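Let us practice reading a record.
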Amino acid sequence: RIQSVDACRRLPVMRAVAPLLLVLTAVGGRFLKRPESLAPLIPREVLFANLQRTSPQISGDGSVLAYLNPDRKGNLNVVIANPMDALQSQQFVTRGSRSIEHFQWAADSKHILYLQDDDGDEQWVLHSVDVGSKEDVVVMGAANSSVEAFWTDRRAPGQVLVAATRPGTNGLSDVYRVWPNRTAQLEAWNPGQVHRWVVETTTGEPLRVVAAIAVAGDGQHTMFKRPKDAGVDVHLSDWDTWISWQGDDYLAPLGMSITGSMLVESNVNADKVGIYEVVDGGEIKPIFTPDNADLGDVMLDLTSNAVMAAGWDYLRREMHFVDELVDSDLKAFRAQADADEELPMITSRSADDTLWVLKVQSSARPAQYWLYRTSRAPEHHHRLSPGQSSFLFQDNQMSKIWRTQPAEAVVITAEDGTELPAYVTRSAVGVSYKTTTTTTTTSTFAAQDVSMAMYLGVDTEDDAPANVTGGPMVLLVHGGPWSRDNWPFDPMTQMLANRGYAVLRVNFRGSRGFGKSFERAGDGQWGDGILGDLKAAVSWAVDKQIADPQRVAIMGGSFGGYA
């Protein structure tokens, strides 16, 4: 029941969001009286706007910052700027009619390489643009061919290795070496089984194919090591077998060590993804594995590929440090940061490792990017002294005037004892019920400066349930189910919290990122174990007086809609 014409006018706010979701089911259907004076909602176009600036990368020589920025038509194109002048000197260097999704600096710090297709045909063409002259040329890619990957190496600044498909190969790619004059030389010919090429860009011979990963008909994956005297015609029978694994396991090469072994991230013969060293003969030696979640990211030395640090996410971001300077630098940066921020991610580095681009996330604010001068830098070599940082930008230009809500990371125990990492975000309106000694119940609003599109509640004080605290809550279920929820800023969560709902997001069994056993525990349990986890999460929220059991909704897309 809608209590006022004003409330009816607000319904399109929710109606417009509905096409994004498969399910929004409410239990109950009673509405609270609307407070007389409320501030405006956070507009949906603010929360769900296209990113204004994102994906910053520092050039190898540390002099120029490149990032994606929307042009006047809203297409993301590459922009360059001096990182030290608050980005006032920004210039567009690409003029694509479609948004660019992937770009990177060439090794010479003078060109930017990026992929672009033609009107969504997914036939990717590799472009190179001169950041000085803005000349844009095609490196590789044409009709019936698509660039699947490319590699650069600081030791061969004028060259690019490109993996591109050819007709009749079902998407499998060959590898070509492209020279500065844009002539292409075949580097490795796909015999028909190679699904991924491994190229070394740090140690050994510059820009060389060192391994290939092939997939057999039964789903078994094998990584073959390329002999040093191998030609362009690939005969896997002549290559050494490095390691094999089943398709439901995971292995991804990170780089060659200076001794010739291969560093990988993998969960072969293990429950969780970790860092391993694969030596000749297929022996796999552990280096580091988190004990509570899968490995998320690895930082390698830019000259030796030695492991410097590793990061992962159980409830919030955690890190393991091998290199003491990385540890001390991030601690120095953290001393300047807000307490509610995640441990930063190093997303881009200069060739001498003296400049980092750091991504800093919070549950109540869009991601921010900072430039940081590391302790490896000389004292008087740059406008930033070692240990100093400079703010670059926030990827969503959401103003600080909008009130957002922080997320609390919690662990909920399922009926069978399984621990479920979860996140609860309280309503910005603060709805609660308080039972008096005369058993009459009143509804109170702890904060009346934020309006809501709808109120799920009670019509009158006499209707209110006795001995109940907590307000309306939405159980927001992630897709997949082989996906996961995380702690950082989530626009949908903020929209719901701003409009008066607590939001609970739970990583139920079957979620990815917590090890094979946790993920496989969801197999065959979509209608039993997984839904049992979701019910346990709601019961937890009721016990914690976050949710009124009669005013709980479930909402989600993809698997979240199915649930």
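A brief commentary: The mean pLDDT is 85.
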